[in-house]
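Chain A, query sequence.
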Amino acid sequence: MAAESVYAAALCAGAAAWLTVGRERGLRRARLLLAGGGAVEMAPWWSRTRLLPVVRLRPEWLCFPAGLVLAVLGESVLPLVAGAVAVPLMRRRLRARERRREQERRAEGVITLCGAVAGELRAGLQPGQALLFAARSTRALGGAEAAVLAAARFGGDVPEVLREASRGPGADGLAGVAACWRVAVDSGAGLAAGLDRLEAALRADRDQRQDLRSQLSGAWSTISLLALLPVAGLAMGWALGAAPLRVLLHSPAGLVCLVIGGLLEVAGLCWAARIVRGGEEA
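Chain A, predicted structure.
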């Protein structure tokens, strides 16, 4: 009976996924028709160009087939439910990681912008022209690029626009660029020299963060290894013929141990991750 319920749940999940893919295909076809004004030939759903982006852009959906495999092996619906619950949690974690990477790319772009503007100033360009050329070549301003370029081209308040742009994630260095620009405009000080010092300071701060991250990589490796120990224990029990999944999923004592062990595992991971992130933030 348990196996039949698992197979039924898997069949329902597959039907839902098929309907979702069909709905996305219809939406994409409608967008293409409205955008181009005519029919556009669509690639088949099984083509390489259609399947690879799904796998590449949505790795969190791999939690669902993993739960399905455990559900079939353990003849229980609980792993399937756990895999479905893990999908949004994994998506949130992956999006947070992508945001951190975007912040690092933005910070690196600001450093490149400082060096590019200083180089253009030494080449003889005016500050506004140097900022226009450097911003277009480095793409470090992100969504605020249009406002900054408009201020630089039409004589607007460039420092104020740069200060507003510095509020974006990873763009803290633009506040330093705005300060250097303000000082150069008010007192006539050399903008190129100020940007050089700012670039050196931002590079030193970036190198310090990278060094700290490399030192903490061992701690993250230890956390990952400790997190995989329960899985290794289950694999060893399975190899010895003890059927650990059946004990955990089909007995009251096993379910209690599974719940308590899962809570302790999550609490330990959160605690260790908080300690390591505290070191990174400091």
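The radius of gyration is 27 Å. The CA atoms of residues 176 and 198 lie 7 Å apart.
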